[in-house]
Amino acid sequence: MAQGSMAPGIRAGRLSTEELAQNFADLHPPFDPHEAAVAADRCYFCHDAPCITACPTAIDIPLFIRQIHTGQPQAAARTIFEQNILGGMCARVCPTETLCEQACVREAAEGKPVEIGRLQRYATDTMMEKGVHPFTRAASTGKRVAVVGAGPAGLSCAHRLAMKGHDVTIYEARDKAGGLNEYGIAAYKTVGGFAAGEVEWLMQIGGITIRTGQALGAGLTLEGLKSEHDAVFLSVGLGGVNALRVDGEDKAGVGDAVGFIADLRQAGDLSALPVGRNVVVIGGGMTAIDAAVQSKLLGAESVTVAYRRGREAMPASRFEQDLAASKGVRLMFNVMPVAIHGNGAAAEIELEYTRTEGGRLTGTGETVRLKADQVLKAIGQTLEGAPEGLKIEGGKIAVTGAGRTSLAGVWAGGDCATGGDDLTVTAVAEGRDAAEDIHSALMG
Q: Which residues of the chain have pLDDT under 70?
C-alpha cells in the first residue's frame, strides 16, 4: 500500500463506522440563507478592496458578497466563476486565513474577517446544486488543444479554451479526473464526492473530452501531441516524493503522506483503511497536516508532526496548525529524522534537534526517540517524466508570461511549472491565464 508494506501496528477498524462518519464530517458546514445574509452584512464593500488583490484569481469579492446581500446568490456565483471556474472547491480548501480573509479590513480592525470562503461556498453551491452552468460555448474555431493532466490547472485551462470554441482533449494518467482535488485533499474538507461532481458540472460547457489512464510516456509523447493538436498545455503535477535519506527508511510501515491521503480519499469504507497506533508525519506543509489529522481521525492513538524548523517557518497556516492540535496531534518543531529503528518494521523514529546558525539549519547532536509503527513522509514532491526538450528550472518546467515553455506551442501551469505556490487557487489562475494566451496565439 502507499503507506509502505504493512507493519504489525498498522491495522484497519480502529474505530466504528459511526465514529468515522462523525470524525470525517464537513469541517465547515455550509451557511443557510439567513446565516449567509448575516455574514454578508459585515462586508464594507470596499472600493479598493484588498481582498481582491490577495486572491490569486482576482475574484471581485465585494461584488459577489453584495449580490448575496441583495438576495442574488446565483449572480454571485457567476461573478466567482468568471474568474475561478473551480470556485466551489477553492471555497472549501483555500487557506483564506492567509489570503483574502487575512487582507480583509474587518480583520485589521476587529481581528474577525468577513467569512469570505464560506460565503463563496454558499454562492457556488447554490448554483451547482441546481445543475446550472453559467456559461455557453462559443462557435467552434476548428482548433484542437491537448491538455495533459486533469488537475485544477488542466481543468481550468480546458474550460476556458472550450468556452472560447476550441476542442479540448484532456489526457489524465489516473482513473479519475480532478488531480489533487480528487486524490490529495483531506476528506473532511471536501465531503460527499464533491470533487467528482465539480468535474461533471464543469464538463457541461461542452467541447471537452477526458481520456483517463493516459500518461506521458512511450504511448503518449509530447511530439505526438504537438503533431495532432494546435497547442499543448502541460499540467502534470509533481509525481515523485522526496526521500528522507536516513537509515531504516526501507522498513515496513514507512511510506508517503500523498499516497496515504490518496488511499483514504478513494476508500469506499474508511473502517477498512489501515492506520498505525503510533504515527509520525515528517514535514510542515498542508500535506503533513492533512495526513496527521486524518490518521488521528482514523483512530491512531498517538500522532506527531515533526518539522525541522520553528513554528514561524512552518508552511502550513496557523489555522491548520491549531486544527491539528485541536484533534490531538502533537506538533514538534526544530527536529529532523536521523534513523528509523525496528526489526524489519518501523517501531521507533529517532529525531535530532536542530537550530539555525547564520541562516543555515544544523543538527545539535541531541536526539530523541518516539514510538512509530507508521512513518509518513511529507517533505515535498518532485517532477517526474518531463518531456525532453523542455527547459527545467529548480526541478520544474520553466515558464514565462502566461505559462509559455521553452518549446513553441507548449504551455505549462500548476505545480509542475515554475512560479506557482502549490495552491489549488493559484493553479486555477495559471490554467485560466494560459488558456487566454493560447487563445490569442491560435487566433492570431
A: 1-5
CA angle 46, 48, 49 (to 5 degrees): 55
Q: Range of 125's domain? A: 45-129
Name which of 413, 424, 155, 156 is nearest 286 in CA terms: 424
The C-alpha atoms of residue 52 and residue 67 are separated, in whole angstroms, by: 16
Tens digit of each residue's pLDDT (9 = 90 or more) over 344-354 = 999 999 999 99
Q: DSSP secondary structure string, 87-143?
A: HHHHHHHS-GGGTHHHH-HHHHHHS----HHHHHHHHHHHHHHTT-----PPPP---
| 58 and 125 part of one domain | yes
- For 362, the enclosing helix (H) or strand (E) is strand 360-371
Grid cell 498505525 in the structure block, residue: 276
Query: For residue 115, what are the CA distances in angstroms to 62, 68, 97, 112, 241?
Result: 12, 13, 10, 9, 35
pTM: 0.95
- Nearest in space to 88 (alpha carbons), one of 44, 30, 135, 168: 30
Domain endpoint, select from 325, 353, 377: 377
Q: Which residue has the cell 487582507?
A: 103
Angle between helices 116-129 and 194-202 (to 10 degrees): 60
Residues 40, 106: Cα–Cα separation, whole Å: 12
In a domain, residue 324? The reply is yes
* pLDDT digits 0-9 by tens, 32-72: 999 999 999 999 999 899 999 999 999 999 999 999 999 99
